[in-house]
Amino acid sequence: MNKKLLIFLSILITLVVLFPIVGSKLAEQTLNKQIEILKLNGLEIKNQNSDFKYFSTQLHYEFLIKDAQKFIQYINQKSNQKIPTAYDDILEGTLVGIDIEHSNFMTDKDIEVDIYPLALAKQLSKNREFNDFLQNRGLLYHINYNLLTQDFSAYVKDIDEEFILEDKTKISLVVLKSRHSGNGNILKANSFISNSEKISLKSSEDSKNINFLITNLALNYKTNNETKKIEFQMKTSFDNLLIASDEGFFNIVGFNYDIFVKDIDKDAMAELEVYLSTIKTKYDLYSQQDAIEKSVMNLITRGLTLSIEDLSFKNIVINRSESLDSFSFKSKLILEKDSKFKTKNITTNIELELSKKIFSQITAISPMVNLAKFYAKDKGDSFYFSIELKDDNLKVNNKKLSF
Predict the structure, then answer these.
(1) Does residue 370 sit within a domain?
(2) How open is the CA angle 319-178-262, to the nearest 5 degrees?
(3) pTM for this one?
(4) Residues 231, 119: one domain?
(5) From CA 332, how far away is CA 236, in angstroms rounded?
(6) In a shared domain, residues 113 and 240
(7) Mean pLDDT throughout 295-301?
(8) d(CA 345, CA 347)
(9) Predicted pLDDT of residue 104
(10) Domain co-membership, 114 together with 233
(11) 174, part of any domain
(12) In sequence order, which ranges of 197-320 are alpha helices (DSSP H)?
């Protein structure tokens, strides 16, 4: 055999053998750095193992949330959504399993992650059925993440379970077809889409019954903070939200919420987030109140535009039989840059339409609101208001008001 060919084959074989090993080591180094960061922020590794194969490597970790306060503070610094500090006691002592599978080839940047609680804090882990449910990875979140493009897709494993607690309370939990996708850092994504077909929680104890149900829940979030000004859009909708018990009944049908905010000053927003991240107790909120108010005013006076494209629902039913019908609200608020926050630099347009049944409910609570009827446009079963504030002039359905 030609000597050059032998050398070429030797190099090729060496590369074939080493390529996945090198890829695996590089991936592990990246993961190890992240794990060290987590260990410095309230987590402790209780168990870990790995399974190396030619094409991929599987890693298993079990983390104990040893310092929930420190862990929550870290997550809140990295995330768009904040975890309430009141969850300290709930998370403290929770054992979380994480399974990671990644390709050993550096050209494949996809990583698969399963996250699931294995045991809750001691005060919450007394029920054997629920503990078995957790041990069998019944509450599992799966993520597919591309390290290069930062695109991700995820889902919550379907749940349809019943548990009987020590006090004989019967709990039914259902989560169906909960799917998510987006782009960016998973905790602070640039875009995020979520759809859940059904989330249901029922509780039954003797003659006391509580029922929570939400169907076809959709969330959509986009943000852009690559310039000195931040903008974001958030949409939420669902078909039904039901909260029912022996003492009351509430059902909202056909809900939509669409908000768009732009021209937010990045430096002012960062300053406000710093203050908010330090709040752990009511005392912290009280002690920081002046600084937070000052920071909020600093944000507002630098100017922004807020548009509520749609806030509406088709119907609300209370007390099982009382239907209040529909509600619709749209608005656009423009705050010009103004250090003194004068009203002449505020422009707003509002369109409000609400059923006469809802208007009647409001006036029953606050009779003064009934005066608004003189400015309303009667549309049969509803009242309509077009409100405009511009150049210090306020108009309602083209009727000028003094203020």
Answers:
(1) yes
(2) 85
(3) 0.84
(4) no
(5) 18
(6) no
(7) 89
(8) 7
(9) 72
(10) no
(11) no
(12) 266-277, 282-287, 289-301
Whether 211 is covered by a domain: the verdict is: no
Distance CA 183, CA 151 (A): 4
* Whether residue 119 is found in the same domain as residue 260: no
The CA distance from 7 to 203, in Å, is 71
In whole angstroms, what separates CA 112 from the centre of its chain? 21
Does the structure show a pLDDT above 50 at 11? no
pLDDT in tens, 243-277: 998 888 999 999 999 999 999 998 888 888 777 76
Mention every residue, 6+ apart, whose C-beta is less than 8 A from residue 241.
213, 214, 251, 252, 255
Q: How far is residue 346's CA from residue 141's CA, in Å, rounded to a whole number? A: 45
Alpha-carbon separation of residue 96 from 99, 116, 155, 194, 348 (angstroms)? 10, 6, 17, 23, 48
Rg over CA atoms, the chain: 27
Name the domain boundary from 80, 107, 125: 125
What pLDDT does 313 receive? 95
Q: Specify the length of the chain in residues.
A: 403
Residue-wise pLDDT tens digits, 145-179: 888 888 989 898 999 989 887 778 888 889 999 99
In whole angstroms, what is the distance from residue 252 CA to residue 313 CA?
Answer: 7
383-401 pLDDT, tens digit per residue, is: 999 999 988 889 999 988 7
CA atoms within 13 A on the CB side of 393: 7
Is 280 a member of any domain?
yes
Whether residue 266 contacts residue 298, with contact meaning beta carbons closer than 8 Å, is answered with no
Task: Based on the fold, state whether residues 100 and 240 are members of the same structural domain.
Answer: no
Q: How far apart are CA 58 and CA 100, in angstroms?
A: 6
Same domain, 233 and 119: no
Domain, as residue range, for 335: 227-403
Cβ atoms of 102 and 112 within 8 Å: the answer is yes
User: Under a CB-based contact definition with an 8 Å cutoff, are residues 212 and 277 in contact?
Assistant: no
Token pair 């008001």 is at which residue? 401
DSSP letters of 360-372? HHHHHH-GGGGGG
- The average confidence (pLDDT) of the chain is 82
Domain boundary among 91, 107, 125: 125
| Cα–Cα dist 170/108, whole Å | 47
Assigned token pair, 249: 């009944």
Number of domains composing the chain: 2
Report how far residue 366's alpha carbon sits from residue 364's, in angstroms, rounded to the nearest whole number.
Answer: 6
pLDDT of 238: 96
